[in-house]
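Narrative of accomplishments. A recurring question from our advisory board has been how the design workflow behaves on a single, concrete structure rather than in aggregate. To address it, we present the structure tokens for one chain from the evaluation set, followed by the sequence designed for it. No filtering or post-editing was applied between the two.
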């Protein structure tokens, strides 16, 4: 059995985009090029469906590009590179506990568990309808396929963790908080709340000013709160992806917030 970590660009979304584009093309031919409409109406429909078709083709091509780049079985394997890159920052003590917030298909949780065989990892996610193919059973199947037994998965809310203060030796997340409306810095603090004193964190997201505001100021705030080390690492300078890739994928601003509490 092989692990199936799915794709960050769902296949259903790609197929839907292509289907809508084909529909616009058909409408363009029927109403814009044939005699189904005439006069001013034909001219209007010609341009409306032509523009819609062009936009649809561009969006479909973009989604297909992302699907191929994120594929775990493809040539680029960006998802795998990011997951393994984050996991390198997670070093748990024997008997320690790690938390992965927004675990999705379990990829990061499992990658961290592999590197910390004597510790245990908990992955939580709300598994919403936006990613309907991601669920607890999928995570458990992937862990079994990878031969990993030191992981558990359960449903949880990243904005309000049902977990005790300072109960984990490490916390991780990957591309989670930017998807949640609200004060995203508050969500980061909620995750860090459950981290033990001396524990490590590796949180990867699109930390752009538009989504988070001044993250350097936030990093300094953590230092002022007594965190031993805090570093914001740009992952679009070749660490995980190039700046050009990040731009075309809509991932500009991606960075790792890492450190020790």
């Amino acid at each position: 059995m092989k692990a199936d970590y799915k794709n960050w660009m769902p296949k259903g979304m790609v197929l839907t985009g292509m289907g809508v584009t084909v529909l616009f093309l058909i409408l363009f031919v029927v109403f814009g090029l044939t005699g189904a409409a005439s006069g001013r109406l034909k001219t209007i429909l010609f341009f409306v469906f032509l523009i819609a078709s062009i936009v649809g083709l561009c969006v479909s091509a973009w989604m297909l590009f992302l699907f191929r780049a994120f594929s775990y079985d493809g040539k680029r394997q960006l998802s795998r590179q990011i997951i393994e890159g984050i996991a390198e920052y997670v070093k748990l003590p024997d008997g320690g506990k790690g938390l992965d917030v927004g675990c999705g298909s379990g990829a990061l949780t499992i990658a961290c568990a592999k590197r910390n065989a004597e510790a245990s990892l908990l992955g939580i996610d709300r598994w919403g309808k936006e990613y309907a193919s991601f669920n607890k059973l999928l995570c458990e199947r992937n862990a079994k396929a990878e031969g990993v037994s030191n992981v558990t998965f359960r449903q949880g809310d990243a904005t309000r963790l049902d977990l005790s203060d300072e109960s984990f030796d490490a916390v991780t997340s990957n591309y989670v908080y930017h998807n949640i409306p609200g004060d995203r810095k508050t969500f980061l603090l909620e995750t860090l709340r459950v981290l033990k004193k001396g524990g490590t964190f590796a949180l990867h997201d699109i930390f752009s000013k538009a989504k988070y505001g001044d993250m350097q100021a936030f990093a300094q705030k953590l230092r002022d709160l007594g965190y031993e080390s805090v570093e914001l690492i740009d992952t679009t300078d070749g660490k995980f992806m190039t700046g050009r890739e990040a731009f075309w994928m809509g991932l500009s601003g991606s960075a790792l917030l890492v450190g020790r509490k």
